[in-house]
Amino acid sequence: MSTQPQFTDWQSFLQLVKEASTQGQLEMLLAMLMTTDERDTLVSRMNIVYELLNGEMSQRQISQMLGVGVATITRGSNGLKECSNDEKNILLSLLSGLKSDPDE
Length: 104
What we know:
By secondary structure, this protein is mostly helical. It has helices at about 10-20, 25-35, 35-55, 60-65, 70-80, 85-100. Helix 3 packs across helix 5 (about 70-80), helix 3 packs across helix 6 and helix 4 (about 60-65) crosses helix 5. The longest helix has 19 residues, at about 35-55. Homodimer. Belongs to the TrpR family. Its main location: cytoplasm. One of its GO terms (molecular function) is DNA-binding transcription factor activity.
């Protein structure tokens, strides 16, 4: 019997996600690993990052639109400060490609 956890770092998680994606099991894996609240929080985080990168709304406006505290928006902003401009552009491009159009 092992006294150490099987998975110990972020890279282990990423490898699991890659493997699940390759096998067409990504949605099932994430649904099993995350609670409904965690999934909702992740979607909120995607919106926060998108709106911050888009730059059309203030942090307060984003907070009001998403129903989250300004501190939550600030944490997202601080996270983006650690990204290079290239990483920000890639992330904005990815998020823009996924953005749903309410008129469709």
